[in-house]
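Slide 14.
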Amino acid sequence: MNKEHEKDLRPVVWWLITGCLLIACMVVIGGITRLTGSGLSITEWKPIMGALPPMNEVEWSEAFKKYQAIPEYTLKNQHMDMAGFKQIFFWEYLHRNWGRLMGLVFIVPFVLFWRRGLLQGWLLKRAWLILVGGGSVGALGWFMVASGLQDNPDVSHYRLAIHLCAAFTVFSLVLWTVFDIRDGRRGLRASGQAGDGWVRVAFTVLVIQIIWGAFTAGLDAGRIYNTWPLMNGSFMPENVMAHGSLWKDLTDHRDGVQFVHRNLAWLVAALVVGTALHYRRQFAGVTPWLVGAVLLQFTLGVFTVLTQVDLILGVVHQFGALVLLAAMLKALHQSGKLIS
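Slide 15: predicted structure.
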């Protein structure tokens, strides 16, 4: 892409960067919503009318009664009064309305840029994909919430992982588009440089780690084995493999999920630091970001476990995963084959 055309697309770039920042804020809000147990406080999905909160005491009473009918209240929160309900309602309400704000921020400029002819060809297709992806994240959010309204007091950790990974995927797509506009379009296929393969291995392991991080959050697995580097004195406690199925042991139970998550962290750190430093000439511009982001994320993970998932540390740790993902995407883009 020539410099003149890139200059013409500066409003589009700023629109996309704004979208990335909004998604990052959404990840923070979502983390707070999860860690404060607020995600099931709104028991209905009303995309339009749900933008308005309860306006009087009668409406608040009705909303609280609906919450009192779900398993989370009857099995875990029977002590909760109206004041407590309003606190958890606030975070879920903010989470949903931030999503509505994001929808407006993506859709309105999309229409304006399209009418002005700034979105054409591959960029128009990419913008449509981003819009559809963003809408899908919202739908998957309700898919997640619905799993905790009938029989279980908690949402499915599998659905939580799908929702979180969908949000990270849209973030990646938006950021990749910024890189395509600024640095030239590149595909996922390696360009043939020395570090291409290693950065792809590191990226793949990071994606797996993010999935297990979502499992850890969904199962509250960070609240057990709050020691480091060993898990209460053992590398692998007996409960990690105590349920009779390797897959369920490592994906469906807190002990195994935390074991995978904390040990994958070592592998992610080694791969990212090793690749960034060994191929520092190839990844010169992004090497400090890669090393700094992965070491900070590792450290945050350790302290999150040691504090039994302190709210602030837990939220910053989740945000750190997005920062590390962004740095890895930059390296991946640099190593991709140019598309004419």
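Speaker note: The two ends are 9 Å apart (CA to CA).
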